[in-house]
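FW: tagging you since you asked about this chain on Friday. Here's the raw sequence from the shared folder, copied in full. Didn't touch anything.
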Amino acid sequence: MKKIKYIAVFIMFFGLVGMDKGVAQCNPQAYTDACIPKLANGFNFLKSYKIDGDGGAKSKVEYSYVFTKGTQYMINICAEGSSTDGIIVTLYDSSRKAIISSKVNGQYISAIAYACNTTGIYYIRYTFDNATKFCGGSALGFKR
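HL: got it, structure written out here
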């Protein structure tokens, strides 16, 4: 009986020691929810995107969306605090040619706008530049 108690205490001790090494989890849903109302006046919400860099294990997070000619699109970024926490959004055309980025002259801006000239698949890529949390959210909006 004493052996069972010692084994149970041994297992509990090492189980508790291992718990302090946990990494804080990313909750991008909270950031996407905050991003939607931050779309500029006149833009209608289309889709939200979760940006989870897995604590720095991922260098990019990418999504695709079909943009329509004659429509203006806005993509914004929300992260901890009022800044983008080093999250950069870059829009690519169907040939994977970069069109616009939210890093301009070394500054991180929280939103980009693009007037679409050609209907097709566009790629929305989020990358991390000196990010601390690797976690955020984004919203895509449109207006005609």
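FW: The beta strands are 44-52, 60-67, 72-78, 87-92, 98-101, 103-104, 107-108, 111-115, 120-128, 135-143.
HL: agreed, and The radius of gyration is 21 Å.
FW: great, closing this out.
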